[in-house]
Amino acid sequence: MTDMKYKTKEELSAFYSGRVDELSAEVRQFKKNNIMYIMAELFSFGLAIVAVVVYCAGGFASQWLMAALAMLAVYAVVRKADIKNAGKIDRRTRLLTVYGKELQYMRGDLSCFGGGSRYKDPRHAFTFDMDVFGHDSLYNRINRTVTTGGGDVLARWLGGLLPGKADVERRRAAIDELAGLEKWRSAFLAKGINTMAEGGKDAGKIDSNEILRAVGDIGKKQIAPKAGLKTTLTAAAAAMACFITLIVLALTGVVPATVAVLWGVVQMFAVIGLNSKSIHDISRAVEKLHAHMHAYISLIRHIDKASFASDELKSLQAALTESGGGALTSFGQLSEILKSLDRRGNFIGLVLFNMFAMSDYFLVRRFLKWQRLYMGSIGEWVDAVSKTDALVSMAGFRFNEPKAVDAEVTGSDKVVYDARGLYHPFLGDKAVRNDFTINDGEYYIITGANMAGKSTFLRSVGVNYVLAMNGLPVFAESLRVSVFNLFTSMRTSDDLSRGISYFNAELLRLKQLLESCRRSRRTLIILDEILKGTNSLDKLNGSRLFLEAVAKLPVTGIIATHDLELSKMEDDAPGRFHNWCFEIELADNITYTYKITRGVARNQNATFLLKGILKNAE
Asked: DSSP states of 167-223 as a string?
């Protein structure tokens, strides 16, 4: 576990607030400098023009010309300083955005972070019930991703569980390392801000998918494959050699100059004509890819310069620097190809370079070489940046939750879940903590009144397990868990558009649960009220039947219910079924303790609350 500098959210809020104030002051000062630079540029350039006019008027010493040159030199120096100052404004403005968002997070405002609603899936094993995606969700709290690929990776990780203890510890080491690199993380996020982005679901993010689509389009294009052959290179070299020879012979008078000129003109038109379609295709492909690459290259360069210690981060860094010669080398060459394409816009240059150097042919050849060397690696590079992006978000969550602790992951092949002081991460300091131990193959029937805390407790168990299995900190005094499958059924809904009633949806969910349990070595199921969509007696009989059937599988379970009769299963199998409850106290008002205790809840609140409503309505 990384030793965090800030131990409370109050200290973190003060830190973020201080950074916002500091950066705001710097931006204001640099903007003032910007005004002075502009005035100095106008003044120095104006003086240079005056000096030139006076000198050209005649009858004046050459000192005026020297003064003009001196003023132009001053203008160049000031202009360079102005550009440097503008860069400082841009970098600090981006950082100000990063720290401003974190300050919003500390104040409980998640509106500036994507909630990942598009990842919601009611059929998923646990994310829908555990509020992993959507507004005010777990993803909403963690997500700081600056690339669409990073957002997708983060969603995929939170929607899955790592397969073993070693995998959890490897990711946790990477998260802890990045959590301690606060300045590096903030700079990464600042570099990833896409100031050119338009509105939409991922506004402000670098579009990783668009980069991959552009790469895919390049791969599909069959751009003059013969230009990459040695035979065409030999022919091109021979043609240029003949042209140079003819020029030399023309200069020495051996052949008429018109012969050399004719050769050069024919060679120019042949090169442009034979390569025009390829150049057009390359131009469209490269410009489309390069349009998304500026901020992306900045992220890759930032990753490349870091000195990481954890295996996961070093592996991702190596994927960017080693595969196919390196991402920076590849994109640098792509930039040079784009510059060469831009230079073709000069008509004189287009004619001369193709006449003497066959530049279009060699440009096509350079692109084919780039395509051959790097195309196969770009997908790997995008994946490495996306994973780093997701880890940066997770590390930010680690940093922002100083009271959360690392879970202890055991290597047991049974279900292990031993929690002390467990609470829901969304509730913060107001949360009531509970101790709870789950033993392999056992079932826990939890009863209690409405609003007594049953569902929140179930989600506390589930969401903290999701955090633990992703190498993230958990919200408890301590949590010891093993690696197992998780399946929940708490928020079943009907789907009338597909003709699926509420009860039918429940049955489909339970069928999906059984199929998942049969495929897995060990599973913890978390259920909130089995078969809510039927009458009480049918519900009781069906619930008992289901639990008796699932108890024959390698399954452990927590089941919340209002049906007190279901608690009698403890009498039938006292070593397998256990009764727990969230009791309330009824007096003039209802007292909710939100503490889980052994036994069966006896006090209910529906009638009590309804009487109060009816009394107030009189």
From this structure: HHHHHHHHHHHHHT-HHHHHHHHHHT--TT--SSTTTTSB-HHHHHHHHHHHHH---
